[in-house]
Design brief:
The chain is 37% helix and 23% strand. The chain is of the alpha/beta class. It folds into three domains: 143 residues, Rossmann fold, CATH 3.40.50.720; 162 residues, Dihydrodipicolinate Reductase, domain 2 (2-Layer Sandwich); 63 residues, 2-Layer Sandwich (Alpha-Beta Plaits), CATH 3.30.70. Helix 5 links the parallel strand 5 and strand 6. The protein is elongated and about 75 Å long. The termini are far apart. The mean pLDDT is 96. The structure holds L-homoserine (HSE). L-homoserine binds next to helix 7.
Length: 398
């Protein structure tokens, strides 16, 4: 079976490596081999083992009837969308690792695939090497999913772990994550939580069966987390993790991406380094958690190749996963309730006046105090923190 790869960066070249390394076992499992016929990239790769496969015009791939499976590992929405659409319309099956594309155009591309009697799949778009998409769209389809809590960005988890364990400098550790091939092309997507936001939007669309607009999800990243926040967290026996949450609320879901304070009794506390974990709670299943490498060339490429095998087994057999393009109206985020850890320069008497009973965080620093509120809604907290003033930082309890 002839295949093509669009985008020969970290993940695309990883896909070629997985196909080369595991050629024989893949052939055994499908009954025929997956042979790379084209690689689309604007750059040249002299000396590459697949040097003869490189093309610069995507229509060369779309027009070749021999190619049945196409991998998209370019990243970004355009031109990836135009290229993927052309491949599906030409009747080819497509797998992508591109969460920006799936979050923005997933429902539409699935409809195009369906209309052309083919499949569009995206296992690698969430959780890197963790098979969470197929788990949700196949294994857990007997359940109503009540909650998903995910550490789903390897770059930021790697950075937070290093900041906590070694007091690493933010910029230095970001550069290290980029060098290891974890980060997005523009690391703002990682550190500001946009990547996690797109991933929880995809997972929520899959469990709700309706389309979540990622712009509706309140999203905070880790760029404001400091070594002092970690000192407070340690004093309270907690850690700080960037968590993407989706909780069932009536007929819809309540979503948020933010750094949270977690305790050792909570499973996500123990997820360190580039590892990702997705905790899923089903109404029949109860709690489950899926753990593994969330970024990096080979874990992500492994998920892409798993998709290629799925596509090879389902040529001209569209597999429906129930993600309609009807918009899901998310629950009002202002009604979510949390306990909040607050650092402020305000006086203790003003804190107690505004927030009533609070617990102090037990760290003696000049010119500031850290305290924990009782549980209250976002709306109520925002009013009270504005009235108090002098706010240095706020982190929600998980
Ligand atoms: N930049 C992403 C991460 C890559 O760090 O998790 C995998 O989606």
């Amino acid at each position: 079976m002839k295949v093509a790869i669009m985008g020969y960066g970290t993940i695309g070249s990883g896909v070629a490596k997985v196909l080369d390394t595991n050629k024989d076992i893949i052939k055994e499992r499908i009954g025929e081999s997956l042979d790379i016929k084209y690689i689309l990239d604007l750059r040249d790769f002299p000396g590459d083992p697949h040097e003869e496969c490189f093309v610069k015009d995507y229509m060369e791939i779309a027009n070749d009837k021999e190619v049945q499976i196409v991998v998209e590992t370019m990243g970004g929405v355009e031109p990836a969308f135009t290229f993927v659409k052309a491949m599906l319309e030409a009747g080819k099956s497509v797998t992508t690792s591109n969460k920006a594309l799936v979050a923005d155009k997933g429902a539409e591309l699935m409809q195009i695939a369906d209309a052309n009697n083919t499949n569009f799949v995206f296992e690698a778009a969430v959780g890197g090497g963790i098979p969470i998409i197929r788990t949700i769209t196949a294994c857990l389809t007997g359940d109503v999913i009540e909650e998903i809590d995910a550490i789903c960005n390897g770059t930021t988890n790697y950075m937070l772990t290093n900041m906590e364990q070694f007091g690493s400098d933010y910029d230095e550790i970001l550069a290290e994550a980029q060098a290891l091939g974890y980060a997005e092309k523009d690391p703002t997507a990682d550190v500001e939580g946009h990547d996690s936001c797109r991933k929880i939007a995809i997972l929520t669309s899959l469990i709700a069966g309706k389309n979540v607009d990622f712009n509706d999800i309140p999203t905070e990243g880790i760029s404001k987390i400091s070594s002092t926040d970690f000192k407070y967290a340690k004093a309270m026996g907690k850690s700080i993790k960037l968590i993407a949450r989706s909780v069932k609320s009536g007929d819809t879901y309540s979503c948020r991406v933010a750094p949270y304070l977690v305790t050792p009794e909570q499973m996500l506390y123990h997820v360190s380094g580039v590892m990702n974990a997705v905790a899923v709670k089903g109404n029949m299943l109860g709690e489950s958690m899926y753990y593994g490498a969330g970024a990096g060339a080979l874990p992500t490429a492994s998920a892409v190749v798993g998709d290629m095998v799925f596509l090879a087994r389902n040529v001209e057999r569209p597999v429906k996963i129930g993600w309609s393009d009807e918009k899901l109206e998310l629950a009002n985020p202002a009604e979510q309730s949390f306990k909040y850890f607050v650092r402020t320069s305000a006086l203790q008497s003003d804190i107690e006046n505004e927030f009533g009973k609070v617990e102090y965080a037990g760290l003696d620093l000049d010119n500031e105090v850290g305290f924990v509120t009782e549980e209250m809604t976002e709306a109520e907290f925002n009013e009270r923190q504005a009235a108090l003033g002098g706010i240095i930082s706020v982190i929600r309890f998980f």
